Amino acid sequence: MREHEAREKKPNIVFLIADDHRFDGIGAYGNQVVQTPVLDSLAAEGVRFTSIYTMGGQTAALCVPSRACLLTGTNVFHAMVTEKEVKLGETENPQLWAINPSLPTWPEVYRREGYRTFGIGKWHNGKESFAKSFSDGASIFFGGMGEHIGLPIHAYDPAGIYHADQAKPSDKFSTELFAESAIDFIQQYKEEEPFALYVAFTAPHDPRTPPQAYLDRYSNEHIPLPDNFMPEHPFDNGELYVRDEQLASFPRKPEEIRQHLAEYYSMITHMDEQIGRIMQALEESGQREQTIVVYTADHGIALGQHGLMGKQNVYEHSIHIPLIMQGPGLPQGVEARGLGCQMDIFPTLFELTGTLLPQTVEGKSMVGMISGEATGSRKNVFSAYKNVQRMVSDGRWKLIRYFRSGEAGTNRAQLFDLYNDPGETCDLAEDPAKLEQLQRMEQELLAWQQSIKDPILHEMRKKG
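The line above is the sequence of Arylsulfatase A-like enzyme; the predicted structure tokens follow.
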């Protein structure tokens, strides 16, 4: 009987999500500078997805909409607000900061299905959705960013209220605090039902202040500049002076960008080691073979590429994210090359765990992609940033459309061949030989905008 129960028990889930970790910031993704042995090992023992994208959002704090898409499995314009609630003239509509209450999150559904759901770390999508999602938790940070020591941390509140004055400043570095809370949970877990452990790091988001021992591993003079480094962006993209862009001087200086990259890699290496401690706890507890481990990020970041510093754009460095899955039901050492997006993670997990998918989910399971089936991949992926940028890519051809009017504004397109120009430095939009590709991608983008009721179309119709 016990053997039968063990075979029938659903796998545990350890879901690890980083903040600002772009797809090429891991050794397994080809970065020869950053030191990420734990994540490299996870990729070698599991599945590394090469082409997963975030869908952007209507706010400069892109972690909010991207996490909402990931948690609800829906598109960016549905995951948080309705069309009527979006006012394009507002830079930070308060309604853009909470998950659409009509949509269940994947931890919430697992909780209903009998999983013990445990939330740790950053939650930037409203206290109500956290309370619905998790039956327990520890070291909870409600917010977007802060100093890595001294973050206002909440204990789990069964009532789900989380009064601000009950938060206590942390005395440990955030990455270590969250990892240790995860380790404590794993070591103490003795229950029969499976668990879903959600650990959201605030690294490698700025302020990038890693422990000195990790910063000492990276020498500025040995940090190469990205191939698409530029002193400044070649035109007004509609968001050149948001907070993130002011974290380095104008124009960008090579030595300053190298310093930013050294700090960024140091934060990632520190986080990688803490993830290793979580994996060790799983191993020692005897839970590793029964646990699906997921590693991903909310979005990427520029750090000197295209003359930009932040993630408020739709270039590859900002919307292309890592995704690694390892555990029961997953093959080892597989590279899944098809196109996917964040909202596809929800249905993929549910198929892997044999859990009934809610009808609200728009995402597409990528299990077929893992096994090499063409049906597992998307034809196109799309992304949006506020009312100024839209993107469509079929994996090779990528169109970025800028919607910015006025004397100082921009209304233009960029077309890139990602096979031959992965750094997006050669704009082909004005090349007559590429007119067919340009028009095809424009049609694909418009069809998507119409299908998801992109509010920018309504704004454009009003303006005539």
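Note on the example: The mean pLDDT is 92. Residues 344 and 363 are 4 Å apart (CA to CA).
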